Amino acid sequence: MPRTRRAATAPPIALPLAPERADLPLYVQLYQQLREHILSGVLPEGATLPSARTMAADLRLSRNTIDTAVGLLAADGFVQRRVGAGTIVADTERLSPRSTRPGRNEPGVATTVSPEARLSRRGLRLAACGDAEREADRRGLPTTVDVLGFPTMEWNRVLARALRERGPRVLQSADPQGDRALRRAISEHVRLARGVRCTPEQVLIVNSTQQALDLIGRLLLDSGDRVLLEDPGYPSARMAFEAAGATLGFLPVDRFGAVTDRLAEHEDARLLYVTPSHQFPLGVTLSLKRRAAALEWARAREAWIVEDDYDSEFRYDGQSIAALQGIDRDGRVLYIGTFNKVLFPGMRLAYLILPPALVEPFVSARRLSDGGSSSVPQAALAAFIRSGQFAAYLRRTRALYSERRDALVARLEALAPAVRVGASDTGLHLVALLDADVDDTALAAAAAGSGVGVAALSTYYAGGAGQRGLLLTFGAATPAAIEASMDALEPLLRRASSP
Amino acid sequence: MPRTRRAATAPPIALPLAPERADLPLYVQLYQQLREHILSGVLPEGATLPSARTMAADLRLSRNTIDTAVGLLAADGFVQRRVGAGTIVADTERLSPRSTRPGRNEPGVATTVSPEARLSRRGLRLAACGDAEREADRRGLPTTVDVLGFPTMEWNRVLARALRERGPRVLQSADPQGDRALRRAISEHVRLARGVRCTPEQVLIVNSTQQALDLIGRLLLDSGDRVLLEDPGYPSARMAFEAAGATLGFLPVDRFGAVTDRLAEHEDARLLYVTPSHQFPLGVTLSLKRRAAALEWARAREAWIVEDDYDSEFRYDGQSIAALQGIDRDGRVLYIGTFNKVLFPGMRLAYLILPPALVEPFVSARRLSDGGSSSVPQAALAAFIRSGQFAAYLRRTRALYSERRDALVARLEALAPAVRVGASDTGLHLVALLDADVDDTALAAAAAGSGVGVAALSTYYAGGAGQRGLLLTFGAATPAAIEASMDALEPLLRRASSP
Question: What is the DSSP letter of A150?
């Protein structure tokens, strides 16, 4: 087609505004149609657009609509406005400079696309599980960690020193497996504190327990594979495995932890997720016998065990129990620990201790899924652990939390027998067990109404039915705040428990 | 079974060491069998184990093997050694304290499980793609970013100030979508610098481009869905979509970028991945006409376009071209930008600018997949951008890189016509195009032998066939280092190109 430079006036253009796009503003429809005409050559390079007045008359649209549409075309470089020469179609084969800046922050044209219609099937499942996780989180426990006491000055010094001492190399792309010094510090820490047996090569740094679970779901499970969870249990783990497309099975929990006798009913399961040190939410500890039974089951079935050791750093009474991982002789246990609960939630550093055979595939998957964690905080944390500052901080917070737990337990015990205090020797929350006829969901709602954030135990059961009680956190509350909360909670508890 | 407390001596135990586990050390087999006997009640609580000497004789094993196995049992809490009373089976129903500390860092018993046998199908694919990505990375471009000039002191001050000014709240769990102040700063930056139209609500902070691609693959693609990529193209994107199970199709690239005329051949494709500002690896810019054609295709087919704007901050000549996202009126473009190339690779902060309809599902998926990025660096980066330090740093590095590019281009142009310099007005690398009969892979290997890290252009083509050339990075090399590299490279280039 010969180029018609400066065509004196363009003929009227056919611009049928599509009734099926009545959901789009008229100026957008006009913009789109003019753009199509430019791209198809109907309006060739150098052609002059009809004046706004002419177009408004021809198309029976307002001047404003025309001006907005042409303004968008100019902003996008499809046309140029020349004083005295009108609006000229630009050379779109070559690059056209942007003629105007877009205005204030604004979305592009609001899309009318329904996301449901265009997400993939697995995307829909992933998004739905993420929503459910947020819901569980919202109606669940309030903040458990006291960040007020975090030594931010010390931490800043450690960060600055890491940058200074490690030099520019620490700014370079991180090893997807994680900073080696940090992996060494972690393997030493978990050996001493948790009886975990590992080398630094078995440690994979991740952003969070959630990321560890996500990688596990993607690497070890196919859609339809069976996963066993504790009931009641940790909602986020459940959602992670559901997002992976797993079929879920459940083990009940009693005072010795997950009832491993029931493992025999699940021969086909590929993975068991447990919280042996401090069962979430009941707080009990898995007995050694059951630990061994779980390991034996995993060995015989070639299944995996995921040990989520989410807050065992905070043990107040009794002797620390070695991690399940420490007595695994068959390489079947994946151990998860996190700094996001011990230090501060925004830290985003956790770790996965892998059987040797799984290290390579997990590192490859981490590399492809996000490339690794932030390098400077990793270097800083390694130094924080090595220098003993981490252990000192743990001791300080453990003493603090122990005092808070005592205050809470004392108040709850005064309410016996209506309230029985669950296991409370570890962690940052405990369960106040209630009679089976108490509506704990209504009670939690009433408590929220009185400004006390608690969660109903029954909501942590897979089927919704189960023991009744309230989950109470004490990590972030001073003893005085605990007294005040209990003053508000006590009448509600008494009323709910009275026959 | 009645409990036989302190049975004077236990009868000989049947411990058939399994020949099929000949891959396991004898002490492990013995440990496992004793453990099974304890758990099954054959060796009940309180029973005394036969002495090591007796067991060694009965089982025809060395004392050393017996001692190691019993030592493991004791370490794991299954037995207790009592002076004068021998080795007693512990109460495994109750919790047993760990009686000994594990030794130095050591893996548990080395597993003989083959990971291939136990990864899921999708896990195998994910790990294989991660491996391929590492391979591509290893034989690919050397470091492109100069971290030596990064203002670490300034950055430390910004980090410390963010902690001080934001207070303890910044330590709390981050919004999975990302720090609001950072999202606001990014939406402002991309509007001014890239012509991107968005509100802060459309910005999702991610750790890296890789994480953006991973989320896109999971949310928008099902296994078997068709994805279109540029050929030659970015290997990590290809691997991310392959890991998502996508079927790949390819668009050739000429001097105006990806040849969008070929889109018509791929009606069934759900997604197109492009690098419009600075095609990777060829360096060309997608023409406005083709941008519009891609948008029109996406609108008509209800497909998605992923715009990876990986290093467009570094434009040296000509006017900046607005992002494809900026002229999308239909909400079909997902725009990816990253700070890991502009600031430092270990930073792990990038962003995805989403069509409004996709924001919610992406945030839900991010929440479930790792919960969000580290909070303090996000707050610091927001302040770094707002204060103008980011823009100042960009200006400084742009001037630095421009000088380096000039040095490299001058040397290469002196080698014409054997070498033609590809587009070099943007970014941190350029392509030295060579004749079609040059073996660029051999040339890259020879260069590596001379200490010069370059990548062969032909390896970026999907089929392996394509233009020949070398990718050269100049971001991290001083002009003097560039001269030295070119002194080494020049004879190799001359030899390879001589007929």
Answer: S
